[in-house]
UniProtKB/TrEMBL annotation, chains A, B:
Xref: SUPFAM superfamilies: S-adenosyl-L-methionine-dependent methyltransferases
Protein name (record): S-adenosylmethionine-dependent methyltransferase
Phylogenetic placement of the source organism: Eukaryota, Viridiplantae, Streptophyta, Embryophyta, Tracheophyta
Pfam families tied to this protein: Methyltransf_7
Molecular-function GO term, any one: methyltransferase activity
Amino acid sequence: MQNILEVVDKKYMTQGATSGSIEFQVFFSDHASNDFNTLFSSLPPSRKYFAAGVPGSFYGRLFPRSLHLVHSSYALQWLSKVPEELLDKTSPAWNKGRISYTSSSDEVANAYAAQFQKDMKIFLNARAKEIVVGGMIVLIMPGLPDGVHRSEFPLGVLDDSLCSSLMDMENAINGVNLKCQSLLHGLINESQVDSFNLPVYAATPMEITEAEISSALESSYNKGTQLIVALKRE
Amino acid sequence: MQNILEVVDKKYMTQGATSGSIEFQVFFSDHASNDFNTLFSSLPPSRKYFAAGVPGSFYGRLFPRSLHLVHSSYALQWLSKVPEELLDKTSPAWNKGRISYTSSSDEVANAYAAQFQKDMKIFLNARAKEIVVGGMIVLIMPGLPDGVHRSEFPLGVLDDSLCSSLMDMENAINGVNLKCQSLLHGLINESQVDSFNLPVYAATPMEITEAEISSALESSYNKGTQLIVALKRE
């Protein structure tokens, strides 16, 4: 945060402003149920900005048109929800025995991809209404290069690890090997594993471009809004 | 809150704006340690404003210059701290046996009055730097009419009640009558009662005017800032 402010301050200084003459206000946005008090009490007392907390999902409007710089770091991989098809046992996208899309069927992966497109469009449309003329949006999120198979996304490792953990615990209890969808005896059952899915997605550059083109943010380019997206391969 | 927004919205409508075309952002300010999560989760979901929480004491800067309307309701009777003279046993303002100034000596009352002047000036100076040209400050706080003795402030009743409670509890334990500074046997001792003081003050209209005149807010009048203070006698 301090780095961003220093860069902006320096830029203004090159335009003739005195250092420190620009006032900064930083809004920290999170779900209303998350712990804002810990956030507030952990802010450095000598900070050179005015701080505020904004409750709510970023898949919706959070601000009036007032923002100069929007930054989201490692948050947009979280979808607004699990794609609905995954909750339907009769759907080809029913994700039996897995908790993400990375090692699942194309139907499951397509449902995740479609949800990402919907969510990203909503996110960009909301920000398009909140950012001032000449503003900037900088997004960092985990992603994959175009053409790389989804199983390369490290979430797959997490998925496999969780499955392995379940297996290990089950083995410790029963002393037998079970498939990944094996269950922690007495605590969770098979249908609970089948219906649980992590709402996490790793987009590719092409998918970001697609969301951008279909969002209202595109029209904001006429007003000079810049969008910078860094997809980090973990 | 909703009432204020409706009034402003109506005013804009009389100037030709469409209803709902004005976006409102409401900042709720409180100490960082207070419970912002309960506040955020209790905001009406259908609210017609964007909400934000701002941590920190209002006896200091909280915002960049951006506010159109500042409203404080029943908060400015809380001083930033107990006047320092009251913590000095050798001072004539040592408030032995009492927890507020309302039934105390003139020295104690003068120390409270001086602290109120300092605090109110800091409050108004901070807001003067935060409010936009043509903005408005509306303050509601408990107060007393000019010329009315401080013992008329209902806090005096609270003070007396607390003393009475201490007395009653002490009587119940010891079966004897004691003075107001009597102590809850074994839980608090005399010096703790003597050193505890409520940092609460009820100002008069003259005191508000005095703080206003000595604050930077006065110069803001040239820029059209309006200050409205309602002192409510409880």
